Amino acid sequence: MNNSTVNSKATDSVLLPWINGKGAAWVVVLSIVILSGLFPFASFYLLLLLVTLLSSAHSPVRVIVCLLCISSIIVFGPLIALKLPINNGGNDKIQYLDFMRTMDASGLAYYLSTQPEVLSFSTMYLAYVLFGPTDLAFLFIFIISYSLLLYAVWKIEYRALPLFILLITSSGAFYSSYANVIRQAMAFPFMFLFLTADRPRCRMLFLTLSSLAHLPSFLIMAPYTAYRYFKKWAVLGAILVAVVVFAVSKYNLNALSALSGDDGGYVSKKVGLYSTWDEYSVVLVALAALALFAVNNYLWLRSKKNDARKKEQSHSRETRELLIASNFAFISLMATYNLSKVFERVYIYFFILSIAYLAVLLARMRPGPSKAIIILAGIAYSIYGFFKNLFIAELLFAGDPFGFLTSSFLELYRSFI
Asked: Is this model's pTM higher than 0.85 or not?
């Protein structure tokens, strides 16, 4: 036997047990890291689809869900933050850059004295101070607001997050808020924390923070708060107010500022803006909202019946609060039907509340054919919706949204370095 044969056998005796044991796990981990670095979106999305699909039969592991949350922040951050500041008729990034420069020139205190949304504008100013009027500032804002949203949903039900992330990142509401109406995105987490808070002081705190981030969030949370004290009378009052707002906005839009008693103030300026904005048809969106409203309440009634029969946990306080809030958002949505831009903002709230409700409800539902079919339908809708929104949102990722799909990790973050 020659020396090379002896050395080969000695090497095999050392390597084979290592490869068959712990070494195999490290090889898998290293392969995943390399694959994630080369194709971060594909790696994340395949894992998200797999975990969401398996959640129809098994509860996801907390560590995997946490990994999905962190990965979604890392992957979608550049897609949102690198949106081109080009005026295409509805790009608010230009406006936010102007806000930052104006706050820097006039001083934060003076600017906030005329602006009720103190929290969101203070966050924008902080991002400007730290990073200047750059894409990095918008990445900073996205990380804060989106991370807080995932934390808020985690507090409600961590098992709901895979489906929630899949649904929200494939929706137009995600790109309309985080890439456009950034102040509204900042209000999301406080709204969810408000809905599930146990103590009155905590609810008041989150109500205040949400309103200071985006004032229209009060349209959803005010009737919900009234419902906690007045029950059916709050529902009747909300419907009555909705009918009045619908009628007034249809025939005399400027009367809304008179009703608010805010002549020349914040509300009057917004009414003036929305009255001169180009109208677009909201019929299809309203029909989609009506269908989602019907599905939400049908699944609630069905889960309530199952709870009585099988003693399941899908019919819980959190799902109930989310459903009530989404129903009030639907009432506000119908009230603002004639105010297309307000309608758009309220629809985003309604949609985000609805998908959170559906994700939590399904996470707490027993495994079975019905749950599997609903989750498969959600996956199919999400894949279609994601690619449809990439096609529509042509300014994302520096004007190359489909290039985002095949970019490596270094290519995603090269512009921030």
From this structure: yes
The burial class, CB within 10 Å (0-12 / 13-18 / 19+), for 218 is middle
Helix (H, G, I), strand (E, B) or coil at 266: helix
Find the Cα–Cα–Cα–Cα dihedral 254, 257, 259, 260, rounded to 10°.
170
Cα 116 to the chain's mean position, in Å?
Answer: 23
The answer to whether 239 and 331 have CB atoms below 8 angstroms apart is yes
Report residue 85 as tokens: 């500041």
| Helix count and strand count (H, E) for the chain | 22, 0
DSSP 81: H
- Please tell me the distance from the alpha carbon of residue 391 to that of residue 395, in angstroms, as a whole number: 10
275 within 8 A of 253, measured Cβ to Cβ: yes
- Per DSSP, the residues of 215-244 read GGGHHHHHHHHHHHHHTHHHHHHHHHHHHH
Q: What is the pLDDT of residues 263-320, one digit of tens each?
A: 454 555 555 545 444 445 678 889 999 999 999 999 999 888 776 555 555 568 899 9
Q: Residue 253 to residues 257, 258, 337, 347: CA-CA distances in angstroms?
A: 8, 10, 12, 20
Amino acid at 140: F
Alpha helices for 313-414 (secondary structure H): 317-335, 340-363, 369-392, 396-399, 409-413
SS3 content of the chain, % helix, strand, coil (to 5): 80, 0, 20
Residue 175 contacts residue 110 (beta carbons within 8 Å): no
Contacts of residue 414, Cβ cutoff 8 Å, sequence gap at least 6: none
Task: Give the CA distances from residue 402 to residues 176, 294, 390, in Å, rounded to whole numbers and listed in that order.
Answer: 18, 34, 7
For 3-13, write each residue's pLDDT tens digit.
555 455 555 55
